[in-house]
Amino acid sequence: MKTRTIKSIYNELKKYSKIHYKAGIENRQDRPYWKWDTVFDCRSCETCKGLHGKVFMWNDPIWTDYLPPVHLTCRCGVRTLTNAAFIEKGLEVSKGSDYYHLIEAINDIGGIK
Ligand SMILES: [Zn+2]
Description:
Blueprint: H1 3-26, E1 33-37, H2 46-51, E2 55-57, H3 62-65, E3 77-81, H4 83-88, H5 100-104
Antiparallel strand pairs: 1-2, 1-3
The structure holds zinc ion.
Zinc ion (ZN) is lined by residues 38, 48, 68-70, 74-76.
């Protein structure tokens, strides 16, 4: 696929991501736990694999600093969870800044800089 096409897809995904972010903010009272969700397969980069399934609170700075997609071929998104779902799944809250090094280490196409 041409880089220009990939970039336009990325820009569209970024736009949708921002729309979902705004909806998430509006629903933060009911769904305060936000889970990093990626397509986990052989095409996933180490950064996205490292973030997959991590839960950060809705107001963790990671969502304003690194709202996915985080690189051109990133297929990550955010899944918001209710308190009941969070407890039922036995999840834990992480601190976004503990994962910044993973994101900052990648280049535009998901490789290591
Ligand atoms: Zn990703």
